[in-house]
Design brief:
The chain has one helix and no strands. With 64 residues, it is an all-alpha fold. The N and C termini lie far apart (52 Å).
Length: 64
Amino acid sequence: MAHTHTHDHPHHGHAHPHGHSHAPHAHPAQTAHWSILRMPVPARLSAALAVSACLWAVIWLAMR
């Protein structure tokens, strides 16, 4: 059964509260000891090339 929802309001841009809250989470965020965003660009590129080479090696070995 399809549900349709219409608005018969004479104005636009009205707010609809949906019960959104910013309560404390069960597991608060922890500080990251390592982040790829803190790496310099050449190190990021080197890491990306190394990961890519490893993945291509896995594909090459699987094709044999």
